[in-house]
Design a protein that fits this description.
The chain is α+β, with helices and mostly antiparallel strands. The chain is 67% helix and 11% strand. The strands form two sheets. Strands 2-3-1-6-7 form a five-stranded mixed β-sheet, sandwiched between helices. Strands 4-5 form a two-stranded antiparallel ribbon. Helix 6 runs antiparallel to helix 7 (124-147).
Length: 373
């Protein structure tokens, strides 16, 4: 739990990370909008040379000033405000263009963009409402122009021959595509990074649940699974399984005389030495303070476990140079086998534990089989 708590304490919450990603996305959009306003607004106003001055051009100038103001104040505005203002601006430009220019309005892009942005930063419900509103606006504008009670503010035939009109359309299309790809790409990259971090955290938390934090050895939870798998394999192959219960001799004195930090270093050293005595398919786990459990699957005979026990005792008993001091512990080992001594994991551990206590009673630093008792 310590590893998990420290991880949570050092890492921003998921909600905070997602909010930061959303904010970066919105600020990139406003940066793109500032470019559109700075270059697109003059292009839009240039159309007045062919269409005459229209009220919608005043609106474009006003909106350009609003974009500049919002961009300058963006750090002080919340994500909800930034997205709301962006979508609102899209709708003002889009609706005014559709009703002023009819089907020739390139501002329809803005209405479509508002739905796209809503789909990225808002709920599905809000996005569907905007999409429905878009269809409604286009339907009303279309009905008005078809029915004759709405008139385009321009001569469509002449409008299509204006270089400024085409330049405005090309510019808006290119800038839209560029900044949307850039903003969405950056957001996707940030989300992938976040997912990678979450996966790493999940693995750390999962490992902390199945491995001892001090030594890195498997814990009892993982041992139970591996004993079960080893017993199943032994039943199928007709082989044997040995479980060794290892208890350190003299470790309590090290803790009492030198302190727990030194004792922890001894445990880490012992764990490393024990791993070095085993095969790749074997398992050594820490199941208590100075208690370890070794699983030896696929054994042809239980007698082979004695050699492993001797190797463990010899390795553990070697002096440990720690912080300028030479410390030493020993090991007592109890051995129980499947199917000879037990037919369940719990019974195997219990009988290996009993054999280990007999080894301690007989002088420590030795191993005993349960069957010898």
């Amino acid at each position: 739990m310590k590893g998990k708590d420290s991880l949570q304490g050092e890492t921003p919450s998921l909600a905070a990370r997602l909010t930061a990603i959303k904010r970066t996305f919105l600020e990139r959009l406003w940066g793109g909008l500032l470019v559109i306003a700075g270059i697109g607004m003059p292009l839009s106003v240039m159309r007045s040379l062919g269409t005459g001055w229209l009220p919608v051009y005043w609106l474009h100038i006003l909106l350009g000033a609003c974009v500049l103001a919002v961009y300058c104040w963006r750090k002080r505005l919340s994500e909800t405000t930034l997205s709301g203002l962006f979508i609102g601006l899209c709708w003002v430009v889009g609706v005014s263009g559709v009703f002023s220019f009819g089907i020739a309005a390139s501002s329809i892009f803005w209405l479509v963009l508002s739905c796209l942005i809503a789909g990225i930063v808002h709920s599905v419900r809000i996005t569907l409402m905007l999409a429905f509103s878009l269809v409604l606006v286009l339907s009303v504008a279309g009905a008005g122009h078809v029915g004759g009670w709405l008139q385009a503010s321009i001569n469509l035939e002449r409008y299509q021959t204006l270089p400024s009109a085409w330049l405005s359309l090309i510019f808006v299309s290119l800038v839209f595509v560029y900044f949307i790809i850039r903003a969405v790409g950056a957001q996707n990259a940030a989300l992938l990074d976040l997912l990678g971090e979450l996966e790493t955290q999940r693995q750390v938390i999962e490992r902390s649940a199945t491995h001892d934090q001090l030594t890195g050895l498997p814990s009892m939870r993982l041992v139970e699974d591996r004993i079960g798998v080893a017993m199943h394999q032994a039943r199928r192959s007709g082989g044997k399984l040995a479980v060794l219960f290892v208890d350190l001799d003299g470790f309590k004195a090290i803790n009492d005389n030198h302190g727990h930090p030194v004792g922890d270093q001894v445990l880490r050293e012992v764990a490393q030495r024990m791993r070095g005595c085993l095969r790749a398919q074997d398992t050594v786990a820490r199941i208590g303070g100075d208690e370890f459990l070794v699983i030896l699957p696929a054994m042809s005979e239980l007698g082979a476990a004695a050699k492993v026990a001797q190797s463990l005792i010899a390795a553990v008993s070697q002096p440990c140079p720690i912080e300028g001091r030479v410390l030493q512990v020993g090991a007592s080992v109890g051995i129980a086998g499947f199917p000879d001594d037990a037919d369940s994991g719990a019974e195997l551990r219990r009988k290996a534990d009993a054999a280990m206590y007999r080894a301690k009673r007989e002088g420590k630093g030795r191993y005993r089989f349960f069957s010898q008792g």
